């Protein structure tokens, strides 16, 4: 996964924009999770990437949120891939998203979405109404 250019400003306002920004991730042969930190103007201020296996990514919310909070983000978007080609969330995906939403709420940042990208398309937790409270992109 190429890193974002540091000299350019990247704004992400919607799930389709996030899916497009990380579309290449759909081609990876192992799951990867990226937490994207956004400022109040929708600018990507930081991201944290966690590699996984063919079956998933093991990660604690603190591993993702610490660096994003240090960068000054006010909102977080998650994106990960499914090497299977199907973007439908697993039970583990749903449980992790719920834990992340709780951790974000405690820390005063918003989890605006969790997007799964796959060869067969993408899936947005926010659009599906699966976030605990209605999220709005900053």
Radius of gyration of CA atoms, rounded to a whole number: 13 Å
Number of domains: 1
Assigned CATH architecture? 3-Layer(aba) Sandwich
- Full CATH superfamily name: Cytidine Deaminase, domain 2
| Strand-residue proportion | 25-35%
Q: In CATH, what is the class? A: Alpha Beta
Number of strands: 5
Structural class: alpha+beta
| Strand order in space, largest sheet | 2-1-3-4-5
Query: What can be said about the biggest beta sheet?
Result: 5 strands, mixed
Dominant shape: globular
Mean pLDDT: 89
Number of H- or I-type helical stretches: 3
* CATH topology title: Cytidine Deaminase, domain 2
Along the chain, the helix and strand elements come as: HEEHEHEE
List unreliable stretches of 5+ residues: none
Q: Percent range for helical residues?
A: 10-25%
Give the CA-CA distance, first to last residue. Answer: 25 Å
Walk me through this protein's architecture.
With 138 residues, this protein is α+β, with helices and mostly antiparallel strands. It has a single domain (15-124), classed as Cytidine Deaminase, domain 2. 25% of the residues lie in helices and 25% in strands. It has three helices and five strands; from the N terminus they run αββαβαββ. The protein has a five-stranded mixed β-sheet with strand order 2-1-3-4-5, sandwiched between helices. Helix 3 links the parallel strand 3 and strand 4 (110-118). The chain is globular and about 35 Å long. The mean pLDDT is 89.
């Amino acid at each position: 996964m190429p890193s974002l250019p540091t000299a350019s400003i990247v704004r992400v306002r919607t799930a389709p924009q996030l899916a497009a920004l990380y579309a290449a991730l759909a081609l990876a042969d192992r799951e990867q999770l990226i937490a994207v930190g956004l400022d109040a103007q929708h600018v990507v201020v930081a991201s944290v990437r966690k590699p996984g296996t063919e079956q998933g990514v093991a990660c604690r919310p603190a591993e993702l949120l610490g660096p994003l909070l240090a960068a000054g983000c006010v909102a977080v978007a998650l994106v990960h891939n499914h090497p299977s080609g199907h973007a439908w969330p697993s039970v583990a995906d749903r449980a992790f998203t719920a834990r992340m939403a709780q951790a974000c709420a405690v820390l005063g940042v918003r989890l605006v979405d969790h997007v799964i990208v796959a060869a067969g398309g993408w899936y947005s937790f926010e659009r599906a109404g699966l976030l605990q409270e209605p999220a709005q992109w900053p």
